[in-house]
Amino acid sequence: MARNGRPRMEDVAKAAGVSVATVSKVVNSRYGVSASTSARVLEVIEEFGYAASLGASSLRTPRTNIIGILVAEFEPFSLELLKGISEAAEDCDYELLAFAGATHGSEAGWESRSLGRLGGTLIDGAILVTPTVVGANGAVPVVAIDPHAGSADAPTVDSDNIGGARQAIEHLIGLGHRRIAMIGGREDLESARLRERGYREAMAAAGLAVRDEWLARGTFRADSADQPTRELLLADEPPTAIFAANDLMAIRALQVAAELGVRVPEDVSIVGFDNIPESALSHPQLTTVAQPLHELGVRALQMLLHLLAGEELAHSQVRLPTRLVERGSTSRVR
User: Fold this and answer.
1) Cβ distance 146 to 129 under 8 Å?
2) Are 45 and 127 in a shared domain?
C-alpha cells in the first residue's frame, strides 16, 4: 500500500493474480482481457476501494464491449438460446458473458440483482432469459426473451405460445383423440398460461370438454411431470393423449409410461413443446412444437445491438411462429 493508505495498481494486480498491465487495461476498458479476468480485477478494485484513488468514472467507462446473457439456470432451453446468440455474435464487435443466478430463478427479481452486479461495470447491455421483472430503467439496455409477465416496458422476444399449443392439440384431434390431457407449466410464467389457453381454445373449437382431472400442473422441470403422468395413466378413464407444456416434462412422461407398461404411442400419444435436441433422442422420438430457439436468440441480440448503437427499434415486441414436428410419440387413436 502507498504511505497514504491508498491501494496502488501493483496492490490490485498482486491480489487479483494478474499483471499491472492487465489491471491498467481493465481500468481503461482496453481490449485483450477476458471477461472472467476483468470480473476478478473489478472485484479486487471494489474490495480495495481503488476507485476512490482513480475516480469512479475511470473504472466505469461507457463501453466494455461485453454483452451479458442472464439466465435463471443453464438448462436445455437456455442453452439453445445461447447457441443462437453466440452464432449471431460472431459478426459483431462484442464479447459474450453468460451468467446464471444462484437461486435458479426461484426468487422474483433475480435478474435485477444480477444486473446490479454486472451493469455499468462489466457489460454494456444484457439479454435476459425468462426474467421475472423486466424494466427499462436499469443501468444498461436490456432485451428480454420469454418474460414471465409477457409485455413489459423493455423490448421482448417470444414465440407464439397460443398458436403452438393449438397446433399440438389440433394434431392430436386430427388423429382421432378426444380424451386429451395437459401437463401445464409454472403458473407464474406467461408462456405457461398462454400454452394452457391454446390448449383450451383448441379443445373448445372441436367441441371437446376440458375435464379438471385431465389438466395437471407441472413446473417445467422434468421431475414435476412424474406424479401427474402416473395419476393420468392410472385413472379409471385415462386420456388417450397427453400434451406437456415443454419437452423436459414430455420426455419424463414417456419414461413414466414405460415404467407403468403403457405403450407410446399405441396406448397413449404424447406431445411436447420446444424441440430441444433431447426430443429427437427420446424413445420413441418425441412429437413436439418447435420454438425457433436459435432465431429467438439471434433476434434478441440484433435488437440489443440497435439499442447499444442508439437506434430506435422498429418493433419493441417480437413474436416468432412455431411449427409442429411430428415424430414417433403420436399415432391415430385405437
Assistant:
1) yes
2) no
